[in-house]
Specification:
By secondary structure, this protein is an all-beta fold. It contains no helices and ten strands. The chain is elongated, with a radius of gyration of 20 Å. It starts with a strand and ends with a strand.
């Protein structure tokens, strides 16, 4: 790869190049939540991971403000159902890299009652 650089949109000052030094494929160990998962409570979700911050998007919910703790393999965060404007907190634990299990609980529902459940998922891609 290559390119050029400059200061404040001025004329090109210099050029740079780079080349890949390894043919090694990155491991899922570094980004264990990245991918598509089938889940019991909320259907299919596509998780994205940047460092220890996780987000997710599915047909039924979106995940935000989620943080992964690699030491205990737990993901903690908030999910929302945009249609009903409800939010839920969750804690799930990654077991073998392709399976998770945990709990979720709505913090606010339209009727005002609390709802909770067990949440499981399996990576499909």
């Amino acid at each position: 790869m290559g390119g050029s650089w400059s200061f404040n949109d001025s004329k090109t000052v210099g050029r740079w190049t780079g080349s890949k030094t390894s043919s090694r494929t990155p491991s899922l160990q570094n980004f264990p939540w990245e991918g598509i998962w089938n889940t019991t409570e909320f259907g299919q979700i596509e998780f994205s991971q940047k460092s220890n911050k996780i987000s997710g998007k599915g047909n039924k919910i979106s995940i935000y403000k989620a943080t992964y703790n690699a030491k205990n393999k737990q993901l903690e965060g908030i999910l929302t159902d945009g249609r009903q404007k409800t939010t839920a907190e969750f804690v799930i634990t990654l077991s073998d890299g392709n399976y998770f299990k945990g709990k979720w609980a709505y913090t606010k529902t339209i009727a005002g009652s609390k709802s909770a459940g067990i949440w499981e998922g399996k990576r499909i891609k």
